[in-house]
Every structure is written in C-alpha cells, then in structure tokens.
Predict the 3D structure of the following.
Amino acid sequence: MTVKKISSGSQFEADYAYSRAVVDGDWVFMSGVTGFDYATMTISDDIAEQAEQCFTNLKAALAEAGASLSDVVRVRYLMVNGVDFPACQPIIKKYFDAVRPAATMLVVGLLDPRMKVEIEVTAKMRR
C-alpha cells in the first residue's frame, strides 16, 4: 500500500519539512491548519474568520486525499487564548454538527503571533 503526501503549497510546509496531509490506506492524517489563506499567505485578525479559513483549508486537503469533512473521526482545536473558543463555536457547529468527531481543545502557543487557532483532523474514508 502506498502512502500519498499532500501539500497545500504553504511556505510553512517547505520551511518546516512536513506534509499538509498523509494518506495511508483509508486513513488521512492532517497536519494542523491555520487561518492563513495559503494562496496569498494572508490572515484575518478576526478569530471567527480564521476558523472559517481553517475549514476551507481542511476541506481542500481532504478533497485532494479523496475524503471530506464527513469522514473526520478526530479533531483537535489549538487555541492561543481559550476565551476565544466560544467565537469559533458557530463555525465548528456549521461544519461538524452532523459529523460529531471526537474532539479536544488545547490552549497553546502558535508559531506566528497572528495565528489564533489551528485545527488538526484525522479522517477515515468510507469506500
């Protein structure tokens, strides 16, 4: 079985030697995605807009892997400031209300001070 590595073209991936996602059989292991628009390398200052962009980035990488958000079985929300988490709730509910993956929220430091949220998922494709 071959392993497929997916890149978004983000400079972060090149600088820090990682793949956006790795597909191994039916499993998709996704690196954390942030609120950066990787095409323009811009990021909003608004936490909700960053969360929305995270899901845009997740959907794009999952689609390239042959999966979708409905295949997500595990999600980790990494937040710089835990008090910002409620502002992300409507976006999370929008994408995961029907999916209901196992979830964890952690308060962490992120690489770039503009980053407020990072989302990491694991998916299992249903073929």
User: Anything to note?
Assistant: Residues 70 and 99 are 6 Å apart (CA to CA). Residues 3-124 form a domain with the 60s Ribosomal Protein L30; Chain: A; fold (CATH 3.30.1330.40). The first helix runs from residue 11 to 16.
